[in-house]
Amino acid sequence: MTAFDRRLAARRDELEWLYMELYDDRARLNELEDMMQGAYDTRSMSLKRMDGRREKNPDWFRAGNMLGVTMYTDLFAGDLKGLEGRLDYLAEQGITYLHLMPLLKMPHPDNDGGYAVEDFNQVDPALGTNEDLSRLTAAMRRRGMSLCLDFVINHTADTHPWAKKAKAGDQAYQDRYLCFDTPDIPREMEKTIPDVFPATAPGSFLYQAEMKKYVCSSFHPYQWDLNYRNPAVFHDMTASMLRLANLGVEVLRVDAVPYLWKELGTTCRNLPQVHSIMRIIRLMVEIVCPSVILKGEVVMPPWELAPYFGTAEHPECHLLYNASTMATQWSALASGDIRQLKRQLDDLHSLPAHCCFVNYLRCHDDIGWGLNEDFGRTIGMDPLAHKKYLYEFFEGSFPGSFARGERYNYDPITQDARTCGTTASLCGIEKGLYEGDEAQIALGIQRDLMMHAAMMSMDGFPMLSSGDEIGQLNGYGYREDPVRREDSRNLHRTPFDWEKAALRTRQGSVQQRIWDGLRQLESLRKEEPCFAAGTAVSTWDTHNDHVLALVRRSGEERLVCLFNFSGESQPISLDALEGTYLDLIAGEKTSAIPGILAPYQYCLCRRQLP
Known about the structure:
single chain, alpha/beta, eight-stranded parallel beta barrel, six-stranded antiparallel beta sheet, 21 helices, 37% helix
């Protein structure tokens, strides 16, 4: 019996039950199993050996040495070959997980940053070939790095071959999308479907003149939503996922997961069939390539996230993005008030142990101010007024702000807006450099490192944004580019500055101070037992709304992590944490936890065992 046969036998009953519930087509189910067998048969022996190792260690991605970074291939190194030549730089950082933004064949210029895909089986020629991708993943494995790629599961570009055949009148391919002859059903559906981009791309349907039909398009007009009621769509899309896995991709970031199933009279978000689809995909991965994990992009409130992990017995995604904590962390920095952040973390800590989040400060996208409004009201925050304060503060227009960023997707009706900018610029480093004020620069660096320290001390998987390790600033050149100027997210989607990176070894430079500060944190995560998989993490009361405390426990080991989100010194008091502690940041042994924290100070204090 092969490993495939063994793994299929253990999961066949559930796979069959879920598939038949969705599609009620046994012949199609047999085709799916044949496709999975073919994917296993063509999988390389080196990847199969990795499958075997990770079957015995399924929580490999939760280890304390895991450190991710996200980047655009072209902005960092030009193409995949150039990136392979830069792996030593990533190894110097201690990177174990590299998330490359979408790189499959896409239309140009309108591709939504690569999220409009023309061919799910081919690397975009501007970035390289499938052979280049396979060589890159092999080189990464030799360095202990895993590659993550986006898989845009919800939609295709309107230039995809399926869309072209649909436009030409082929009914079989029109059935791969959600197409309607009249506007009646689309109009009814739009009554209950929230807009993704209300200002720039309102509505969820468009009229396609070539087909003379109305097509579902949740995101941009050139992205058509797929019809997962059609098993042909599910088969072809999952086959493409397994092909990427066989090229050495170890993490599949499944894009826009909540949108996969559409139902009249609903929001077309988070429907039960979405979970059936994700559970089937999880089973397929466990059968064919169990070294691969699924990272779901689910930008929803915390109470809607947990179902996407499934249950411990029937899991779905291995990892989810922690977008809500990103927003509450920046809110805490602007306001100096950690109460919403603490509540957010408490909510996450209450989830089952198999739930694991990717924590990050910045990514390719904006910061959406989706805070817990009900809780905010209980502590005297007016939700709209606070949201306006945040996007004004981080664009630098609020009096006294240290930040430099820009608004994104402003809606004049709701007055909602999001925020763009790099970590360094939002933390005040850009303003300090512009004004030539060393004190501002130093304080900006301290904010930057404190924010990273808090993120890296939270329960979950830490991920950096490329360039943050050298304090890369906003890039305003996009305003002169007619293709890019309408999207302010390009403010932080800038070419990597290799000249600035070279300054990471120059003592006293901004780059050296940030680089060394992050390396200290990364080394502590790798070495300290309280960052190992399975560590218990909880918040602790500091009796001060400006200071966040996290306590990490592993056996008898205890690590107390403190973060002052205020620009002033703050006294703290921690109940029931007596003992002798070593401050791993300052390297000082004290009889107790520090009682006062300097502005934006952070401490990671290990309890000294007898």
